[in-house]
Design goal:
- The protein is mostly helical.
- It is 46% helix and 0% strand.
- It is built from six helices and no strands.
- Helix 1 crosses helix 3.
- The protein is elongated and about 80 Å long.
């Protein structure tokens, strides 16, 4: 396929398209447009803290044989939270403690479906990352 150099293209002033200039509109802050920062209650923060000790295996339902072996050998499995909202927060927090930002999409969707926002998610992740600071990790390695 051949193409002509730009100098050979017919340029007609009538063919140029003029775009309208963008118009700036000032938006006044109204009570409805003010975004409140994401916050968790003290109970929700305690769920995030408790999730540090849980493993990913605690999120799966044990089969009949596994449950029988746990009872036989006296192993303790972390209980689910009675409140579905807190259980979703616990599950997300366990993934955040164990895998960082690699939280499964299904868990994130369940988290959002319980009324949390992405700001809450970022708040939990930032808090967990801050608690894994190098100073704290150094103290744990002694």
């Amino acid at each position: 396929m051949a193409s002509l150099p730009l100098a050979h293209w017919p340029i007609d002033q009538a063919q140029t398209v003029r775009l309208p200039r963008p118009r700036l509109v000032s938006v006044e802050a109204t009570p409805h447009s003010i975004v409140k920062p994401a916050r968790l209650s003290a109970l929700e923060w305690s769920v995030v803290a408790l999730a540090e000790r849980d493993t990913i295996a605690s999120l799966k339902e044990p089969g009949r044989i596994a449950a029988a072996l746990e009872n036989l050998f006296g192993r303790h499995r972390p209980n689910k939270m009675a409140n579905p909202r807190l259980e979703v927060l616990r599950r997300l927090s366990v993934f955040a403690w164990r895998q960082g930002w690699k939280v499964p999409d299904s868990e994130l969707k369940a988290f959002l479906a319980e009324g949390f926002t992405l700001d809450h998610y970022e708040l939990v992740q930032a808090s967990i990352a801050a608690s894994r600071s190098p100073l704290r990790q150094r103290g744990a390695s002694r």
